[in-house]
Each structure stands twice: as structure tokens, then as C-alpha cells.
Amino acid sequence: MLKYYGIVRDAASVVEAAANRALEALRDGRVEQEPQFTDRLLGRVEESMEGYEHKGVSWRAKTLTDRGRNSQEKSYGADFFGVVNIKLPGLSISKGFLAQAKLIGPGEAMGTRDYERMQGQCEDMLRLSPDSFVFLYAESGIRIVPAITIASCDRINPHELYTRSVGRFFEEHFSCFIGDRSISTLNIEVLEQIAIEYRTRSGLALLAKETH
Questions:
Q1: Over the stretch 156-187, which tens digit does the pLDDT of each residue have?
Q2: What secondary structure letter does DSSP report for 109?
Q3: In this structure, what are the phi and psi dihedrals at residue 84, rounded to the nearest 5 degrees?
Q4: Segments forming the whole domain that contains residue 57
């Protein structure tokens, strides 16, 4: 795995840069709601990673955004899922994660009702996969916390939780620290099936393979 560390770290930095570009819309007030920001975030990542090549490895990317009829009436298990498939000599990884998205203000503590609702959403995700997370959106940046932390803690300020940056999270996702093998596919075109199975609004799939 150490052989590919530079590749993993570099790809994670590209994802983080894409997330930072998406944050500009939040800071400028062009995006004010979680679903719209999630769409922008995943779109920026797709734009940055599709066709990206580095050190003999090429990447493909595809997003799935819920545009279905009566979509607001659907029951969701998560806001989005992420899948990564890495097929390199001596290394084969296929896995994913589930995520809820929460927009929070600077230093803002959540009300009791909102926090309990978030806890319930985390419990729902954890019933589907142990690799479930909450993406906290704030103008200061995006921070990621395990769903099990939210589900296990009494109401607290989300800013006080132990979190990961986008770059650190995806570095661990691309390596072997984060990822559920049951949320995976070797065919990037079957995102819709995953979305139905795990009851998500949106999805992001990334595929890395050796450049020939």
C-alpha cells in the first residue's frame, strides 16, 4: 500500500480543492440549503476527478443527483453515498460510505429538536452501514464526523466534535481505513441501483485504474 501512498494523497488533495471551490458559493450566499450545496460539492468533485491522471493512474468520476418525480416524498436513508473503486497492480479496493449533510453557522449549537432529528438520521444510516458519516457544512469549511459519534453523544455543539477535513477523510477513504464493501460496484454505471438500495438522494463514484 505504501507504493501508492503518493497517488492516494494526491487524489485526496484534488477532492479537497474541489470542495473549497464549492464553498465559495456558500460564502457568497449563492447556495443556502443543504441539498443544493451537496449537489454543488459532488459536481465540483466530479469535474475535478473525471479524466484526472497522475503517476500512471487515471480517474473516472460520476455523480447521481435525485431528480425523480415526487422526489420530495421519498424516504431517504442518507443524503448521499460515496463509492471508490481502485484497480491497480497488486491493489484492488471497492467500497463506499453513507453521509448526512448538515449546514451549521459559525460556532452554532443545534437546538434540541434538530439535534435529536440528526441523531435519528444517524441511527437510520448506521442500520444500513457502519461506515456512515455526517458532513458539517459551514462557511469556515467542511468537517466530517462519524455518525456513531452523533448517535452516541448528548446534545452538543457540532463544532466541538472531533472531525476530519475533506482531504483527510478522502485520503482514508481511498486507502483502507474507511469504507463498507457492501456499498460498492465494479461498474460505475449502476449508481441508480445503489441509490435505491441505500435510499439516498445523491451519489458520487470514483474509479482509479492504471493508465495504459
A1: 777 788 899 999 999 999 988 999 998 887 66
A2: P
A3: -130, 135
A4: 2-210
